[in-house]
Amino acid sequence: MDEFALIRRYFAALTPAGAGVVLGIGDDAALLQATAGSELVVTSDTLVAGRHFPAYSSAFDVGWKSLAVNLSDLAAMGAQPRWFLLALTLPEADETWLAGFADGLASLARRHDAVLVGGDTTRGPLSITITALGEVPKGTAMRRSGAQPGDAICVTGALGDAALALQLGASADPALRARLDRPEPRIAAGLVLRDLAHAALDLSDGLLGDLQHILDASGVGAVVEAQALPASPQLLAAVPELQARAELQLTGGDDYELCICLPEKAIDAARARLDVALTRVGTIVNEPGLRVVNGEGLTITPSATAYRHFP
Amino acid sequence: MDEFALIRRYFAALTPAGAGVVLGIGDDAALLQATAGSELVVTSDTLVAGRHFPAYSSAFDVGWKSLAVNLSDLAAMGAQPRWFLLALTLPEADETWLAGFADGLASLARRHDAVLVGGDTTRGPLSITITALGEVPKGTAMRRSGAQPGDAICVTGALGDAALALQLGASADPALRARLDRPEPRIAAGLVLRDLAHAALDLSDGLLGDLQHILDASGVGAVVEAQALPASPQLLAAVPELQARAELQLTGGDDYELCICLPEKAIDAARARLDVALTRVGTIVNEPGLRVVNGEGLTITPSATAYRHFP
Q: Taking CB atoms and an 8 Å limit, are B43 and A123 in contact across chains?
């Protein structure tokens, strides 16, 4: 058995039996039993070393984030995670690194009842592709289309921390750094919001660029209020000036918060059931385009580009 | 929109509407409707340039083979392909290469009614991960376990052509080269054999190493007859000596044929329904271990290692 066969066995041993897993790792493919009355929700995202995470990232953080960005996509659809497959390409079989990577992956997977059911391990430049599978009751998934004029635009959590952590690099404090390295996919929030939202997506490339996808898919426009963007105490302290802070929050990436368009009257009902802050940051309007305003009018034009990933 | 967003749009345009696709490419995740009474069959395989295919491979062939190795896993379970996700990592957005790659991918996908429903495109060293999803009627999937003493061991098609093509390199004729570059996943054969087989897998690393997985999973042994291994006319002409040919057929990889264990009396029924040759190459036995014999006794010991991928 070569070293990569050993790795596959290592991951197989880490895999708990899971609901709906008829046959897990170890055959040509996994056999899964989908829930009657549900639709499958599937997504696949790749993280490349030096592009999506710094080469000096801890193995734990790489494992965590590889799964988190995929679960965040499931959250944006309002899905319950079920299973995932891991395609891991590694320059060498470093057991210490693998143990850390598997620990990070498993820590997040356990939190959301996601079970590793298959994948592949190959030798090559470090890169991780995870395919995540979730479920929603038929017809209930949130989409990017469906936003309506008059809808409130809301976001979960706070925006801009990950972008600030990236700017600060090694000088970022651990709590701030964790916002970049170990994002929390908003699974529970997605499950609540799917009953209330007209449209949703997750924020990976910055609110400006990502919200534009909702506008394109829904055929509407938006006004975003810069002073309403939720900022953490760390971000407020580090970037006290509104314009600079708003630019970071609007075009910085890696937030992995949800952006939801919903009727204004549904906001209170949503907040009552959420485990995370929900902040109104703007309004869907008839006129095409995305305008960002503060008290004094236009401050940032829609031409500002979305974040283009590390570095 | 950056060049990689353009690529994503390019693949989205190539995607036909497909059965069971509630929502395809273009949202945070795809929405799929599984068939009632079925189990999902999922697998994920990565191809790395310079390791799983030569750097000089045509883009068409890389697209074809990336999907073929995954569909071959579905075939080994007896599954009908339904959907797939493509995670494509590219050093640059070369439109000519992309057009060829997409053409190869689409050519094979259309043949087997597999629909591209999502994925990711990132910049980095060339690597392709495909996750394929198929379906089987509940409880009918073939597995590696289940082989019984007395079962005939059969393989589809011919063995060793891909290994010969790899040895010959540029001097291989195009038909032989195609056996390496554009393997035919045995989907139709898998659908037939799942009613008859006790155990199955696909041959990617060579019969010796792959059959051992069935023996391990089933707790049995096997005797393989070297002179029975099916060889193409090209292989017979190029390697006329039995021992040398058998070693190539047993330890060469990339065949992507099926290896099936089934009752001897079921072979004729299988052949009557198959679109490909089915050749008996050995017998499952009680005694542990894998013995390869020809008319004169033991010729190759089980310690011969499986093929370890290009180069």
A: no
Tens of pLDDT along A34-81?
999 999 999 999 999 888 888 778 999 999 999 999 999 999 999 999
Nearest-CB residue to A85 (from B77, B131, B217): B131
What is the pLDDT, as a whole number, of residue B305? 44
The region that residue A297 occupies, defined by phi over 0 for left and psi between -120 and 50 for alpha, beta otherwise, is left
A9 CB near a chain B CB, below 8 Å?
no
In the 8-state DSSP scheme, what is residue A49? B
Q: What is the pLDDT of residues B152-182, one digit of tens each?
A: 999 999 999 999 999 998 889 999 999 999 9
- Bridge partners of A31? A23, B41
Chains A and B form CB pairs within 8 A to the count of: 183
Instruction: Give, in degrees to the nearest 5, the angle at Cα A244 between A243 and A249.
Output: 95
- Contact between A280 and A179 under an 8 Å Cβ cutoff? The reply is no
A23 neighbourhood in chain B, CB within 8 Å:
141, 143
- How many Å apart are CA A148 and CA B211, to the nearest integer? 58
In B, residues 256-285, which contact A (CB 8 Å cutoff)? none
Contact A257, A159 (CB under 8 A): yes
Structure confidence by residue, pLDDT tens digits, B234-284: 999 999 999 899 999 999 999 999 999 999 999 999 999 999 999 999 999
What is the average pLDDT across A177-184? 96
Query: From the list A31, A73, A217, which residue is nearest B141 (CB)?
Result: A31
d(CA A46, nearest CA chain B) in Å: 7
Of B192 and B94, which is predicted with more confidence?
A: B192
At residue A50, what is the residue type?
G
Residues in chain A within 8 Å Cβ distance of B114? none
Residues of B (40-99) whose Cβ lies below 8 Å from A? 40-46, 48, 51-52, 73-74, 76-77, 79, 83, 85-87, 89
Q: What is the pTM of this model?
A: 0.93
Closest Cβ–Cβ partner in B28, B41, B85 for A131: B85
Q: What order do you get walking across the sheet with A199-202 strand by strand?
A: A199-202, A258-262, A152-156, A278-285, A221-225, A289-294, A297-300
ipTM for the complex? 0.92
Cis amide bond preceding A54, omega within 30: no
**Which residues sit opposite A154 in a β-bridge?**
A260, A280
